[in-house]
Design a protein that fits this description.
The chain has 240 residues and is of the alpha/beta class. It has six helices and ten strands; from the N terminus they run βββββαβααβαββαβα.
Length: 240
């Protein structure tokens, strides 16, 4: 996988990157190789504690409510990489291909760990729906790629069932109580997890990104979870 800033450069290592500005770093990238191009937006405020990869099952997911969630993380002193794990022509056919999404997420994470603006920072995953399953799968299948914490919002952890017991990063499951099927799946998933975990149920909400006030609650929960679990990892250098 490679990266193009507007138009990009190669994925790890050896790209001619621009050093991060002391006041922060922000840039859009197209990540990929060959026919694969994943749109991404990297925001690293000054003095961040870590970087959260927000994974969306579509191209350019930051142009909606997802970006508001990223902005909340930025305001709390966390960096973000918003990335759509599917290209537009793939969205219908591959949205449930969790193994493929996990492989792409791992490749994106390797790129992020090598970027000068984020090198040495703890990395976390925040996914929704099938990309939450991909985050769990990626963390379990590639333990040598360091992930400090995971938040699954309205996730489908049942799609990562074979890998749940192998997930090591602390994992927060966030779901609305108005969706009993999804709530049940997340409760079952937490029983399968062997890592530190928690389940946050937001009252009166179904799909959280579409409910007034729910997005703010997801933001507060995510900030608290990542901040807590980034602190012990801060200052460490990811393996090459």
């Amino acid at each position: 996988m490679g990266a193009r800033a507007g138009a990009s450069a190669p994925l790890p290592p050896g790209a001619a990157w621009t050093a991060a500005d002391p006041s922060g770093f922000e840039r859009e990238f197209n990540l990929g190789s060959g026919d694969l191009t994943l749109a991404a937006h990297l925001m690293i405020p000054s003095g961040v504690a870590g970087v959260v990869v927000l994974t969306d099952g579509s191209e350019g997911g930051w142009r909606g409510p997802w970006h508001l969630l990223a902005s909340a993380l930025n305001q709390a002193g966390l960096g973000t990489l918003e990335v759509g794990l599917l290209m537009p022509e793939e969205e219908r056919g591959n949205v449930f291909n969790v193994r493929m999404l996990a492989r792409r997420l791992t490749a994106v994470t390797r790129w992020l760990l090598c970027h000068p603006a984020s090198r040495g920072l703890p990395v976390g995953y925040l996914g929704t729906g099938t990309t939450a399953a991909a985050a769990l799968w990626a963390a379990a299948a590639e333990p040598r790629v360091p992930v400090a914490a995971i938040v699954c919002q309205d996730g489908r952890p049942d799609l990562a069932w074979p890998q749940l017991s192998f997930v090591r990063p602390p994992t927060l499951l966030v779901v609305g109580c108005a969706d009993p099927v999804l709530l049940g799946l997340n409760r079952q998933a937490r029983q399968q997890l062997r890592c530190e975990s928690d389940l946050a149920v937001i009252a009166g909400s179904g799909r959280l990104l579409n409910q007034p006030g729910a997005l703010e609650q997801v933001g507060r929960l995510s900030v608290a979870w990542f901040t807590r679990h980034f602190m012990p990892a801060a200052g460490t250098t990811p393996p090459g």
